[in-house]
Amino acid sequence: MADKLIIFDTTLRDGEQSPGASMTKDEKLRIARQLERLKVDVIEAGFAASSNGDFEAVQSIANVIKDSTVCSLSRANDRDIARAAEALKGANSARIHTFIATSPLHMEKKLRMTPEQVLEQATQAVRFARNLVGDIEFSPEDGYRSDPDFLCRVLEAVIREGATTINVPDTVGYAIPELYGNFIKSLRERIPNSDKAIWSVHCHNDLGMAVANSLAGVKIGGARQIECTINGLGERAGNCSLEEVVMAVKTRRDYFGLDVGIDTQHIVAASRMVSQTTGFVVQPNKAVVGANAFAHASGIHQDGVLKARDTYEIMRAEDVGWTANKIVLGKLSGRNAFKQRLQELGVALESEGEINAAFAKFKELADRKSEIFDEDILALVSDESVSSEKERYGFVSLSQHSETGERPQARIVFTVAGKEVQGTSEGNGPVDASLKAIEAHVQSGAEMVLYSVNAISGSTESQGEVTVRLQSAGRVVNGVGADPDIVVASAKAYLSALNKLHSTAERVAAQG
Ligand SMILES: [Zn+2]
């Protein structure tokens, strides 16, 4: 029997930490459900002690996810650990992931602690956590740049205290595959009780080697858990990408000889959901989930693929969920069909009220657009105005006028805390005028740092999906809006970003 490789997804924690990728509780829940459908072994749902918002997100994910272990990150202190344990109370299977930096640079400059103090704190933290939850993961932050002798002492001590998974992060993305693999191998050889824990890799992509480093940690180092994110989401150049690392192990099973439990057919849907939610667009030539990943443009390749697919294809597009552009629903589809499709897409709306609101939007869309694709449905539910009664700002209506040679004008009606207001403005273009009309009333003063439009299913008939990234007082948020009219989509995206700026909670910084 082959060894099992544990897939630990940290899209909702490390991925969400990247500037602009912050998600609401509902968005996190939706993604967590999709991760469960993917059969991810462990979902790192957040960092419970960092803010009330994070605590609630971890708690609600712990309460609904049944098949995956739900994990919370926690610094190595009693308060953080107790908070994590509390958030995880409702979980079928819970894990606490505690960390402390062990590299000379981080201990001296960041923690201002001596190595002995760090060793003591790590040991105590694991001992404390072990009494609350049985499944404990420990990470020496910046582990790869730590002194190996010191690291051996710390890891041996935390395993003795009951840590069941030892993760070796390459926090800054500095590792090289062979060196990283050998680093883990030597730790496992030197630490007498290393066989009492499962070893894990956590790599960042600063040099484009996060996937390669993770695989070397598995093959050379003997690690049996990989920490990764959908689309490689994460700070700076991101984390190891789940889809790439999973398909590498599956496609080259002849070499790795490991089993992964991931149901790969849900990969593309997960990728879309994460990119639509965060506004981090997937590049077309991205492995596995990029729009061109399975497109054979050259004549020679097309000819080969038509004669025998495996001439140029090492994976099958349908195995990772590329069944896209299949018409799934239309104008005549009923509420039940809609609800069922939502479930198949991994979207579970909380209440009947939310389903009704989403269905009303679906009908409205179907009136304007004859073919409704999965992408449209996902955009429709990720459009935050579905749950607008909870939000401060909600879109109502928009009219704008533009003509060659004239300056465009826009008038927008929206709600502020349930009350309708309107704003008017002119601008350089209809989108600019519409957003200025909102700003004329709201006066957030936020700076727009990104504006992007995507056609959800590829033609001008499709819905436009707009991402707006706003920056204010050191915070960065994304708003996403979808509509066949891109000016309306832009206004919705802007309002959704304002909602996120409004519902802010200061967060404690986590590890990289
Ligand atoms: Zn990280």
TrEMBL record:
Domain of life: Bacteria
GO CC terms: cytosol
Function: Catalyzes the condensation of the acetyl group of acetyl-CoA with 3-methyl-2-oxobutanoate (2-ketoisovalerate) to form 3-carboxy-3-hydroxy-4-methylpentanoate (2-isopropylmalate).
GO MF entry, a single one: acetyl-CoA C-acetyltransferase activity
Region of interest (Regulatory domain), residue spans: 394-512
Domain Pyruvate carboxyltransferase: 5-268
GO biological process: one example: L-leucine biosynthetic process
Species for this entry: Paenacidovorax caeni
SUPFAM superfamilies reported in the protein's UniProt record: 2-isopropylmalate synthase LeuA, allosteric (dimerisation) domain, Aldolase
Family: Belongs to the alpha-IPM synthase/homocitrate synthase family. LeuA type 1 subfamily.
Higher taxonomy: Bacteria, Pseudomonadati, Pseudomonadota, Betaproteobacteria, Burkholderiales
Catalytic reactions on record: 3-methyl-2-oxobutanoate + acetyl-CoA + H2O = (2S)-2-isopropylmalate + CoA + H(+)
Gene from which the chain derives: leuA
Pathway in which the depicted protein is active: Amino-acid biosynthesis; L-leucine biosynthesis; L-leucine from 3-methyl-2-oxobutanoate: step 1/4
HAMAP family noted in UniProt: LeuA_type1
Entry binding sites for Mn(2+): D14, H202, H204, N239
NCBIfam families registered for this protein in UniProt: leuA_bact, PRK00915.1-3, PRK00915.1-4
Cofactors demanded by this protein: Mn(2+)
Quaternary assembly: Homodimer.
EC class name: transferase
Name recorded for this polypeptide: 2-isopropylmalate synthase
InterPro entries per UniProt: 2-IPM_HCS-like, 2-isopropylmalate_synth_dimer, AIPM/Hcit_synth_CS, Aldolase_TIM, LeuA/HCS_post-cat, LeuA_allosteric_dom_sf, LeuA_bact_synth, PYR_CT
